[in-house]
Design goal:
heterodimer, A: mainly alpha, MetI-like fold, 75% helix, B: 308 residues, mainly alpha, 15 helices
Chain lengths: 311, 308
């Protein structure tokens, strides 16, 4: 086997062309047994993955009587948007009965500063780490990378104390700070890898032209790194929107993010369970990351791949 | 303007930036948040918790050392033992199934499939969702009166029973189903990237030698993808230890304490039952678990061959 590989590679251009010829025009037997098995498996798995979303949608559009009688997979006989209205504006958590809209706006108010701040800090980190290395910078980076693996549970309590000392515990800005801190390892890695891939000559040229640390950052690096800023934004928006743990620890009930409020609405023990309202609420909460996911497509994948596989 | 002028001079002196103490002052100032995060949060807070896990802290943290008392108590608490057992079952199953399903899907998608991006989009979308959303959807799907069990029964199979969330013996598998639904897409994407990185010549060679496709995967491709598998492994395990939101949303640890997990134990001890010492000890155990997984990996990854 190794011999074959070697000889095809070693035979020079004409031979390579010859070998690659038949591969390019692979015969298309669309209905071969293998293909049916292949596509069959893929489709069955796709149905399994898609079903929960389908169930969420159809349940949220049914009335309660229909849910009690029918099949959860069946499409609604009578479409009603009442559950959506109720989930958004009337659902109760504790004594507040103004629905998920409160959580939604809280999440937005948490999201915007957190995303901006975390990306700003991490991009500067990445830039400093790739172009302005100083003694100790790699040590900080290593700690940061190891820190990404420390379970949050180990650090949450001391951070409560720190935030309390700073007067930020239970406030929106405290949570923003926490998101900035815990988003830092992955984002710094993302930016560092990207800035390292930008040719050093460009950086040198800018320095010769008299640009300093910030000059190069704003006029050279940021404009060149726009795609990676978008990737970082996707990563952070979905990550922060989906956060539950930090929201529940570092904020007060009035500024609970959407996920926390959703959990409180659905898992509250009082009252009759309204599954349609619950599913509408769940779907509403999932809508923001889902929209980002379906719109951004490849960039989302790039974001998680960059996060997952070290560059 | 003066500072930029100064930099021009520096740049003129040596083409690469050297490192005297005040040279990269802007860079150092800009790195203060990173340094603070690394030192205060990741080192400081972790150390603080570990130290306080040896104290008798109850309502408030205090430095009254009691040796390993908290750990003794922790390991004789039934709830913690259940948590650990659940984590072990969930972890092992999740690891095996995620790797197998993730790799199989990636391999199937790599067979030059039509509509590949459509399939990939469907397999990956759960990953974009919050664990809370995932937990609540599966709570609804697994509802015994109205969910899947009810649908199958109404099709005529009256004795069909599938109510993992209400059966203490199998509740962790109910959570596993949801976890797999959410997590396999990510591993599939990583595996797919790994498969795409494999040289076409390998496939050609295997085809010329007449090795069946499945055998090529098992004997050639998987061994070649070792680094990808290791990355996936690290990713899955570090996710497993952190599992919290999913359990809170899906079962709140119930029925009884049947689906408790360590992260939830820590949270409850710290913020509900005001037993900080137990929380610190439990979280230190979590750190230890991660370290046990991470150290061999770091050794393999960075110890064996030095990388720039």
């Amino acid at each position: 086997m190794a011999d074959v590989t070697a000889s095809t590679n070693g035979n020079g251009i004409p031979a390579t062309g010859l070998v690659e010829g038949p591969r390019g025009a692979k015969p298309k037997r669309t209905f071969s047994r293998g293909n049916i098995f292949l596509y069959g498996t893929l489709i069955v798995v796709a149905v399994y993955y898609a079903l929960p979303l389908w169930v969420m949608v159809v349940t949220s559009l049914k009335g309660m009587p229909e849910i009690r009688m029918g099949n959860i997979f069946a499409p609604p006989v009578e479409i009603t948007f009442q559950p959506w209205v109720k989930a958004w504006a009337e659902a109760c958590t504790g004594i507040n009965c103004d629905g998920l809209s409160r959580g939604f706006w809280n999440s937005v108010r948490i999201l915007v500063p957190s995303v901006v701040l975390s990306i700003a800090v991490a991009s500067v980190n990445g830039y400093a780490l790739s172009n302005w290395k100083f003694k100790g910078s790699e040590v900080f980076f290593t700690i940061l990378m190891l820190g990404a693996f420390i379970p949050y549970q180990v650090m949450i309590y001391p951070i409560v104390i720190l935030l309390r000392e700073m007067g930020l515990y239970g406030t929106l800005w405290g949570l923003v700070l926490v998101h900035t801190i815990f988003g830092m390892p992955i984002l710094t890695l993302l930016f560092r890898n990207y800035f390292t891939s930008i040719p050093m000559d460009l950086f040198k040229a800018a320095r010769v032209d008299g640009a300093g640390f910030w000059g190069i950052y704003f006029r050279v690096m940021v404009p060149m790194a726009l795609p990676i800023f978008v990737v970082a934004m996707i990563l952070q928006v979905t990550g922060i929107w989906n956060d539950f743990l930090f929201g529940v620890i570092y904020t007060k009930p009035e500024i609970y993010p959407m996920t926390v409020q959703l959990n409180n609405i659905v898992n509250s023990v009082q009252g009759v369970k309204e599954y349609n309202v619950n599913m509408a609420a769940t779907l509403l909460t999932g809508l923001v990351p889902l929209t980002i996911y379906f719109v951004s497509g490849k960039l989302f994948v790039r974001g998680i791949a960059a996060g997952a596989v070290k560059g | 303007m003066t500072s930029t002028d100064a930099r021009t001079v520096e740049a003129g002196n040596g083409s690469r930036p050297p490192n005297p103490l005040l040279k990269n002052l802007s860079a150092k100032i800009a790195s203060v948040p990173m340094a603070l995060t690394a030192l205060v949060i990741f080192l400081g807070c972790t150390g603080w918790t570990v130290v306080h896990s040896f104290t008798s802290s109850k309502l408030l943290p205090k430095l009254d050392f009691v040796g390993l008392d908290q750990y003794d108590r922790l390991w004789s608490t039934r709830r913690w033992l259940v948590s650990i057992e659940n984590l072990a079952i969930y972890g092992i199953c999740s690891l095996i199934f995620t790797l197998v399903i993730g790799f199989t899907l990636a391999a199937l998608l790599d067979r030059k499939v039509r509509f590949e991006s459509a399939f990939r989009t469907i397999y990956l979308y759960p990953f974009a969702l919050s664990f809370i959303v995932t937990g609540l959807v599966w709570q609804w799907l697994l509802n015994p009166e109205l969910g899947i069990q009810n649908v199958v029964r109404s099709l005529g199979w009256e004795s069909f029973s599938f109510d993992p969330l209400y059966n203490p013996d199998i509740v962790i598998f109910g959570i596993l189903i949801a976890g797999l639904w959410q997590g396999t897409g990510l591993i599939m994407v990583i595996m797919l990237a790994g498969l795409r990185g494999i040289d076409e010549d390998i496939w050609k060679a295997a085809r010329v030698d007449g090795i069946p496709v499945w055998k090529t995967y098992v004997l050639v491709i998987i061994p070649m993808m070792r680094p990808v598998f290791v990355t996936a492994l690290v990713l899955i395990t570090s996710g497993i230890v952190k599992i919290y939101d999913l359990v809170v949303a899906q079962t709140s640890g119930g029925p009884g304490i049947a689906s408790e997990v360590p992260a939830k134990y820590v949270y409850d001890r710290m913020f509900s039952s005001q037993n900080l010492g137990q929380g610190f000890a439990a979280s230190t155990m979590m750190l230890l678990m991660v370290a046990i997984i991470l150290i061999p990996w770091a050794y393999l990854e960075f110890g064996g061959k030095k990388r720039g």
